[in-house]
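#structure-requests
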Amino acid sequence: MDAANRFETPVTYRLLRAEYLAGLLLSAGLFIAHWNEVRWPVAIALFLYIDVIGYLPGALAHRRSATGDIPRVYYVLYNTMHSWLTAGAVVALWAWLVRPEWALLAVPIHLCGDRGLLGNFLKPFAVPFEPKAHPTFARFEQALRCTAEQPAPQPERAVVRSAR
């Protein structure tokens, strides 16, 4: 992916997920290493608030919709609550107003788990709220796959003529 081609191929998508799995393992490892120091009600609340506010309302609206179309506000809620910017603000405010603590690791565990284990990233308005291949993207991906399987055209060799 780059600024001109904002999509992931299957390989780059797996690599991106692998990076998040590494973040999940690190966060979970620290969490487990400090198991006895974790305030469990805080950890559970910090883990759940992301989906209670950001996912469940949209998932319910999606399931209730006959067409699967739901208002954009559900996408905004999902993307806001699953953003590292929001998560960082929540963690920073908690550490400042309450105290730094191991329970705060529930936030990166949640986000890294969503991305690394489930493959869920931020949701564009143009795709269904619940994962389902968009027909246009499926055609694009097939065309991209066909292009990648064909050998790249070789550049024409310049003929160098001497000036005799």
